[in-house]
Specification:
about 80 residues, alpha+beta, two-stranded antiparallel sheet, 4 helices, about 65% helix, about 10% strand, flat
């Protein structure tokens, strides 16, 4: 991930975070955010983490190079669902 890409992601995350409402339930602070904004923030955080992790990038390269295909039944069995 380039420095510019990191800056773009961080600016977008900051924009979302400035729109968050803070409240308290009892003594615990609670954050209220619309679901759409949460999903956008979550996607950007995942992208940032993926692109910042060299080990994760290696796993992606390895997985893309693998030519084995799995049926839906095999995938379900592997995932335990």
């Amino acid at each position: 991930m380039t420095f510019h890409q990191k800056i773009v992601i961080l600016k977008a995350m900051n924009t979302i975070l400035t729109q968050i409402q803070h409240q308290k339930i009892g003594k615990e602070p609670v954050v209220i955010i619309p679901l759409k904004q949460w999903e956008d923030l979550e996607d950007r955080l995942e992208d940032f983490e993926m692109q910042s992790s060299s080990s994760f990038q290696k796993k992606i390269v390895k997985a893309r190079a693998e030519k084995k295909l799995y049926t839906s039944e095999e995938a379900k069995k592997m995932l335990g669902i």
